[in-house]
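Risk register update: the risk of archive-format incompatibility is retired. Evidence:
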Amino acid sequence: MSDGPEPPPAEPAPAPPAPAEPAPAEPAAELERVRLEMPVDVRSASLVVLAVLGSVFALHWAAAVFIPLMVSLMLTYALSPVVDRLERWHISRWVGSAVILLGLGGAMGWTGYSLSGSAQDLVDSLPVAAQKLRLAMRGDGRSKDPSTLDTVQKAAAQIEQAAEENSAKVAARKGVARVVIERPAFNVRDYLWSGTVGLIAAAGQLTIIAFLTYFALGSGDTFRRKLVRMTGPSLQRRKITVHVLDDITKHIERFLLVQIFTSALVGLATGLVFWAIGLESAAVWGIVAAVTNLIPYIGSVIVMAAAGLVAFLQFNSVQMALLVGGSSLVIHTLVGNLLLPFLTSRTSRMNPVAVFVGVIFWGWLWGIWGLLLGIPIMMVAKAICDHVEDLQPIGELLGE
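Archived output:
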């Protein structure tokens, strides 16, 4: 007999918890996520590209406005020291500017008038030169055997005739009417009209350039002071604007000095070489070479072709024509294509590759005027980019 109620059975002791399995290791990429920043904002880059394309289109579309502005700016920088000297001699800037521009226009007119006779003789002798050149290439017409040129021409004519006969047979076989397109007759009035319009447009541009240059020379540093005032009351901005304008003036003046030096060197060397060869009017050819040296790459081709043609007319020899044209090409290549880019890069501290690419771009955009103005425009752009913080990478790209 029990003394009391039986105690409840003891609960089994809880089993020790099983050791937790280790969590699978996560990849390192998930543990540490690195956020990469793009060095260039795509949206900003797209806007820059669109802005550049729009600027190029505007420069091409409004070339009739921008070209006179740039040419007058170049003339203003070139003639400003002379006007400043006259002003120190108590001569009004407006009077001095008028005297200088009238004298420059008179000198250009006198030079053109003095060279007009030689140019007219050259134009009149072109048919004779073409006939002599054709006879020289055919062996002066003395040998009865056909030359290589005649053989090639006859073969090309026979091939063209055979092709026309074959096409006519095929068209007749298919019952298709053959259509012959007749070229319009040569109309002299059309060419005279187009040439007259071109001369009127050129005269209009020269008139605009003359008036713009006169007003810019007469006003002096008025626009310079206005630009400094437009930057705002901040002294730092005004200092930057003054530095930019000083750099632009310095670079353009150095560029003009380099152009004058190289053109004089080309003219002197061309005149001496042509005189040593025995070419007539060697001094005139020296002046022409000096003027055309201002046109990069194209001026040398013009002088080479014209001087070679005149030498062929004078000496009646293809070898002498090649000697005169080759000597002109060598002079322009050494001075205009090697010395000029080197001096330009040294005076403006610009990369020669950037100078060459810039000349090609502006020549494509504005033609001959672009070739003349390409380097000064790049100098102005570099001077601005060097002093603007956001544009300094472009200035670094253009620099040495």
